[in-house]
Amino acid sequence: MARFIQQQQQITKCCLFYLFVAILIADQSRIAVVNAFFPGVAVQRQGEDCSKISTNRNIVKQTQNYQEETDDDIKNDGNKISSTMSRRSAMQRCGGIAAATTVLSPFLFGALPRQAAQAADDVTKVIPISASWSAVDGLNSLDEGKKVVGFDRSAYNAMKDDPSRTPLFKKAIIDRLNAAPGGPSTQTVLDLGTGPFALFSIMAAEAGAKKVFAIEANKEVAQSARFLIKKSGFSDIITVLDGVSTELTLPDNEKVDLVVAELVGSIATEEGAYATVLDAHTRFVKRPNSPKSWIPSRIQTYAAPASYTLHNLFQPPAFDWDKLAGQPVRFNCRDEGLQLLSDPVLVEDVSFADIPNNIALTKKDNITEPRQYTFTVDGERIKQNTVAFREEYRKNKVIKDEELEELALSTARSFTGVAFWPRILMDDEKDSTNVINSRTFPEGGHQRSHWQTVLPIMNSTPVGGLKSGDKVVVNADFDVPSKVLVPPKYRLEGNVFVKN
Questions:
Q1: Rounded to an integer, what distance in angstroms lies between the CA atom of residue 62 and that of residue 57?
Q2: 308 φ, ψ (degrees, to nearest 5)
Q3: What SS3 class is residue 200?
Q4: CA dist., res. 434 & res. 171, Å (int)
Q5: For residue range 416-439, what is the model confidence (pLDDT) as tens digits?
Q6: Handedness of CA 91, 138, 414, 308 (dihedral sign)
Q7: What is the pTM of this model?
Q8: In 320-462, which ranges are continuous DSSP H helix?
Q9: Interatomic CA distance for residues 26 and 87, integer angstroms
Q10: CB 129, CB 492: distance < 8 Å
Q11: How far is Cα 283 from Cα 239, in angstroms, rounded to an integer?
């Protein structure tokens, strides 16, 4: 719960319950907020239609005195309570909270009195911002020690059914096998993280591969993969090995011609791709330095400063964003509640063929220098974002019509954090069109993807009053270890420079 001031205790408790319900159903963009206040809820790589989140009943009971009005929206399944409200209904509830608490948009820097504003015309405000988190914070974990990101069935389904992902992997597998000297029947394939459907392993077998090794760390998932492989008639071609790949060896120490490694997180390295591929590079591959040995060939992360609707709607003392403790909010990539303030920049670029020499990720004496990125606020984006936020607030009936313009403009001129999302290159050729973009490239616009946009909240309240030309300067320290069972850690520190 947020920390309440004493004189507002009763009203804020009621408001926060409705806020939590709103966040629970708004879509998977709100998952980090859910995790902060409802421990035990975790979602990763969920996709378009995953609009239900379950919470432990004993947590929900903390707010049962304020639950009567939402009984029709909560379904009790015996052990869990699931929210099934529509996103629009949730935002309408949010509008009621905002009105009750009168904290619609008290920015860190609001309007100055006229004389003070004139005196400060040439002054630049410097606002410190920061966030830090581990790759497994707030997500499902494969083990109780929270060392490796794990997935539930809905996440695997979202991956399988993503039209921007699966067909491109299939094309890359078929093209690569057909281009091999001697044809597909001469090729041995390794599928790292095959999943419950053994999707890419079966694709390789169907394309004519001589032999396929499918590695899966989760034993139950590996068993599901074996069942489907048998059902598909490829048990004589595909061998499933269960366990963490860095702790396994291939039968007879065999080495493979092609590795399929779909280990890409919403921040590209957060699912252990670096450590896993580095190990495979050393032990499993005949020609590890050739880009043709890897699918994908390269994974990237892009970043840009962003504004966020709920960060502007709910602020202290009624709501304490510090409760997230750096844990990022994860957005559906089509969620208009997040808008970018500048053009994106590349912050991670991992070539699988050249991974031992990847200076940006390899540590020397356990020390790595943070990289600095400077983003310039784009005035044209502020205009476009104002229109988008106005429509977002209007359709969800968050605020009175006469107040829409002011709230939309305030949100568009605010900074919440630096957003991250992945880009996956199947081939290492510059002109290749076989590329997966989770957001549009290069501008970073909204589009469908099962991958998410990751947004750490970098200040307890939005940094407001931004104008074209203002700067966001961030030092990014990505601690990406070479051991699979050590989760990557991400730290951001910097300043927003706001000119009056």
A1: 9
A2: -140, 125
A3: helix
A4: 8
A5: 999 999 999 999 877 678 999 999
A6: negative
A7: 0.79
A8: 379-395, 401-412
A9: 4
A10: yes
A11: 18
